[in-house]
Structure formats: C-alpha cells, structure tokens
Amino acid sequence: MSNALIRNIEKLVALDAAAVDNILAVCKYKTIKKKDFFLQEGEVQRSLVFVAEGCLRSYSIDENGFEHILQFAPPGWWIGDMRSSLDQTPASLNIDAVDESEVVLIAMKDLEKLYDTVPMLDRFFRILSERSLAAQQHRVIDALSLSAKERYNNFCSQYPSLITCLPQKYVASYIGITPEFLSKMLKQPVKK
Fold first, then answer.
1. What is the number of other CB atoms lying within 10 angstroms of the CB of residue 9?
2. Per the structure, how many domains does the chain have?
3. CATH number for the domain harbouring residue 23
C-alpha cells in the first residue's frame, strides 16, 4: 500500500529518500469492508484518505432519502469531505466502501507537520486541489448543460474500470438520473 501512495505522489513531485521516510512514518493503514463507512455525516474527518485497493464513494442524502454521489475513488485516488478535514467540523458527506478496500490514512495533524519537513508535499496537495477544483467545475457545467446520455458517456470516460462493476443505481446517482431512466436509456438503440 505504501508503494502505491509514494508512486501517486511522485507522479506530480519528486521525493528524496528522507521525504519518503517522513511520509511513511505517519501513514496508517486500514481495511474497510464492503458497505462499511469510513465517514458518516456529522462525524469529523481527521485523516486524508488514499485508496490503495478497492473503491470508495462519497455522497450526501437529501431530505427525501435519495443519495447523491459526488465521487468514486478507485485505486490511486484520494477522497474526503474537504470542509470537514480542513476545518475539523462535522462532515456533510458519507464515505463508504463500494468494495472491500485498503486505504492509507494521513492524519491532518501529521500533514501539517509534513508540510514543514517535506515541502514538496505542500506542492503535491496544491496541484491535487487545483485539479480537483477544475474537475468539479467541469462536472457542474456538464450537469447543467449536457444530456443524461452525454453525462453517462463522460462517466464511462472518467471511470472506465468501474463502469462494469458498479451497481447501475450508483452510476445513475452520480450522473443525476434515476436508475429506471438509466436502464431505459441504455436499452435504446445507438443512433448513427
């Protein structure tokens, strides 16, 4: 798991041996069983989460009990309720395991110390945050301007490894339609 984490960071920034040692010294490892929660609405997220194996999802539940999935995190992705982790306030999101998952945790208190001892980590998370913000903006624009079929195709492009293994209800929730509409849409013949 630690190798996957270091490879993920080194995709964006260079780390020397001392930096790797400092990062690994604060990492905690956890297995999350399928359908178990990492975080529930109202709890405070105290650690950043890197998915080494499996898949997590973040979502909110509206007043009618409908789930609205914000993100899937397959291997190599980070996931969290950013407001909760940054401000140490109650989470508005739930994060659970789609499949049994192995995750690497870095406590927020340790992360602050790492920024001083491993300056490149600060750069890594800045780049990651910028990319995440850009992706979220793009997703909002897509939700406002694209058809359900176009949003589905974008989902397939973004998460090609997940499209065959996720329940249709999760995919439907992510693209903002009902499972029934998704099923009907997928049964329609492709127009040439």
1. 20
2. 1
3. 2.60.120.10
Euclidean distance between CA atoms 80 and 38, whole angstroms: 9
Pairwise CA distance, residues 141 & 135, whole Å: 10
Strand 67-73 versus strand 78-79 pairing type: unpaired
Q: Does residue 136 fall inside a structural domain?
A: no
Q: For the whole model, what pTM was predicted? A: 0.89
158 part of a folded domain: no
Closest among 186, 44, 36 to 102, alpha carbons compared: 36
3-state secondary structure 110-178: HHHHHHHHCHHHHHHHHHHHHHHHHHHHHHHHHHHHCCHHHHHHHHHHHCCCCCCCCCHHHHHHHHCCC
Chain center to CA of 35 = 15
pLDDT digits (tens, 9 = 90+) for 20-79: 999 999 999 999 999 999 999 999 999 999 999 999 999 999 999 899 999 999 999 999
Q: Is the CB of residue 171 less than 8 Å from the CB of residue 186?
A: no
